[in-house]
Amino acid sequence: MELWTVILRSFFIYIFVMVIMRMMGKREIGKLSVFDVVVSIMIADFAVLSIEDLKMPLIKGIMPIIVVASAQILLSYISLKNAKIRHIVDGEPSVLIRNGKIQEKEMARQRYNLDDLMTQLREKNIAHVDDVEFALLETTGKLSVFPKKDVTSQVKLPLPVIIEGKVQEDALKQIGQNRFWLKNQIQKYGYRDWKEIFFASIDQYGKLYIDPRKD
């Protein structure tokens, strides 16, 4: 008898949660905001409790789901009508690259590192930071990139020679150079030490890209 109770409750909760999620609106998983994710997790937890605790009346199990879903629908409606509320709930896009320059402070505020940035640029066939007009981190965590021109991946990607003030020895070895050469190169751009540089890379044509520290 208990087994059938679990089966029936599971089936009912499954249908009920499906209906609730449809009522909350359609969004792709990759486009969920932080608020949407929190609501989804809470509904999932309440649904599991309703199935596991057979002594708990079913109405007590589905009531929290109804409350959370109603709050989400109400807040979504308010956000639709009010831009300020929408920005508080969903946040705003952050500019990580502007006119080919990395925005260090914004990256630090978003806890977004250079490895993540370079990976997502490569995924969009952008080989060089200097080729980017704007790169925005959307509220969903997706990186939107607007290149300066039609950019395609080159045979050889630019090598990062300085990352957050630290020389990348492996990259220097790949181009057959050393720290002495690198210091001479950055001095041509007016920098006395690589600690003044947040990010620097060199492409296959020997072009050096430098993004200085802002602090």
Description of the molecule:
- This protein has helices spanning 2-23, 34-52, 58-81, 83-90, 104-109, 114-123, 169-174, 179-188, and strands at 94-98, 101-102, 132-137, 143-147, 159-163, 166-167, 197-202, 208-212.
- The radius of gyration is 25 Å and the shape is elongated.
- The termini are far apart.
- The strands form 2 sheets. The protein has a 4-stranded antiparallel sheet with strand order 2-1-3-4. Strands 6-5-7-8 form a 4-stranded antiparallel sheet.
- It is α+β, with helices and mostly antiparallel strands.
- Helix content is 49%, strand content 17%.
- It has 8 helices and 8 strands; from the N terminus they run ααααββααββββααββ.
- A hairpin with a 5-residue loop joins strand 7 and strand 8.
Proportion in helices: 40-55%
- How many helices? The count is 8
Question: What order do the SSEs take from the amino end to the carboxyl end, as H and E?
Answer: HHHHEEHHEEEEHHEE
Beta-strand percentage range: 15-25%
Secondary structure class reads alpha+beta
Gross morphology is elongated
Largest sheet: 4 strands, antiparallel
| Total strand segments | 8
Oligomer: single chain
Strand order of the largest sheet: 2-1-3-4
Q: What is the typical, i.e. mean, pLDDT?
A: 81
Provide the gyration radius in Å.
25 Å
Distance between the termini: 68 Å
Residue runs with pLDDT of under 50 for 5 or more positions: none
Topology overview:
Layout: H1 2-23, H2 34-52, H3 58-81, H4 83-90, E1 94-98, E2 101-102, H5 104-109, H6 114-123, E3 132-137, E4 143-147, E5 159-163, E6 166-167, H7 169-174, H8 179-188, E7 197-202, E8 208-212
Helix pairs in contact: 1-2, 1-3, 2-3, 3-4
